[in-house]
Amino acid sequence: MHKIISVLVALHVSIFASYISVCQNCHGKGFEKRALGRSRIVKNLKKEEIKQRLNYFKTSSSIMKSYASSLSEKQIGQIAEIFGR
Ligand code: HEC
């Protein structure tokens, strides 16, 4: 059941959320790549860790700063829910 809900949410997001397509350029469609050859593989991270990392990047000097800063709390939750373990 949980899987089905995740797939529905993922479909919904892939249709409506252009904010994720930006990320996919570097991280891959399913967040299965090492972005720029140096990030960790996000789909292997726990949901909680994805949220922590994105919140941390908002105030970091990482290349992720501008991408993370443009995400709302809700969007961060969605990304973690869909792509995290
Ligand atoms: C220009 C390429 C690029 C784009 C676009 C990008 N990222 Fe990243 N991302 C990176 C790199 C490089 C890192 C590793 C950065 C670091 O450790 O400072 C990273 C790290 C991360 C991490 C943590 C993984 C780790 O190594 O700890 C998450 C989660 C993440 N990105 C999510 C996203 C999301 C969500 C978006 C879209 C809103 C996004 N990224 C857009 C390049 C990108």
Summed up:
Helix content is 61%, strand content 0%. With 85 residues, it is mainly alpha-helical.
Written account of the structure:
The protein is mostly helical and 85 residues long. The protein has one domain: Cytochrome Bc1 Complex, Chain D, domain 2, CATH 1.10.760. The protein is built from five helices and no strands. The chain has helices at residues 2-16, 18-27, 47-57, 65-69, 73-83. The radius of gyration is 12 Å and the shape is globular. The protein starts with a helix and ends with a helix. It binds heme C.
Structural class: mainly alpha
The mean pLDDT is: 91
Separate helix tally: 5
How would you classify the quaternary structure? Answer: single chain
Strand portion, in percent? under 5%
Alpha carbon gyration radius: 12 Å
The total count of strands amounts to 0
The gross shape turns out to be globular
State the end-to-end distance.
Answer: 15 Å
| CATH structural architecture | Orthogonal Bundle
Question: For the report, how would you describe the main beta sheet?
Answer: none
Bound molecules: heme C
CATH class, please? Answer: Mainly Alpha
Low-confidence runs: none
> What's the helical proportion of residues?
55-70%
Number of self-contained structural domains: 1
**What is the fold named in CATH at topology level?**
Cytochrome Bc1 Complex, Chain D, domain 2
